[in-house]
């Protein structure tokens, strides 16, 4: 997992941490420049916690240990291009809104890149490459992401489905060939239907992939491959889950290109066939 944008990651995942880990998190956010030069024991003393809490905090952040936290902090402190997250205010002009939405999108993507586990991405992409059938499911804004998955892998010649009816999807997965994949998408990692389908997919022997916001969750723990997007701070105005949606679409694109690159000539051939098919359809409509 990448180590970029660690301060933003800490801010956003704070509510999911234990009380002892929150002590460490608050100190890191208050004095990141000092933490870079501390030992784990000094960090524990200054944050009024314990060395074990410091180590657990680092692991909760997706890091191997305290040394990696210091490297990540050094990278963050050296980066003067951090955009940040902004909520919409009553007196914002249209120009202000454009800048805020752009900043939120850029920050969300940067934070998500910092969470990418390349090895996990490659293994998940290999499963999708080998899969005889792919099922993707999400609710609300996540349903749009599921549809994007189905559309992209259809272009690669896969049997890919984004079924909205939970019962029909369950029946389809029950008869799915060995090696088929289920992708459960839930930014909160708490969507009941997604969790239920993930449990059923595991029971049915499908390979399972979860798309969730970063942090501990049952959904990520029970999936074969867990892919994380950034957790943006809660805002009063968060229309259409814009930040999470951008990040989820980005993860889909990464998986798609990694998967397509495994046999690039065959992938290009299948993509061209889908383009030709759409063009033929247009000509039939015009005739």
From TrEMBL:
Keywords: DNA-binding, Transcription, Transcription regulation
Domain HTH rpiR-type stretches: 4-80
Residue span, SIS domain: 124-265
CDD domains: SIS_RpiR
Domain of life: Bacteria
PROSITE patterns xrefs: HTH_RPIR, SIS
InterPro entries the UniProt entry points to: Homeodomain-like_sf (IPR009057), HTH_RpiR (IPR000281), RpiR-like (IPR047640), RpiR-like_SIS (IPR035472), SIS_dom (IPR001347), SIS_dom_sf (IPR046348), WH-like_DNA-bd_sf (IPR036388)
Protein name: MurR/RpiR family transcriptional regulator
Source species: Paenibacillus terreus
Taxonomic classification: Bacteria, Bacillati, Bacillota, Bacilli, Bacillales
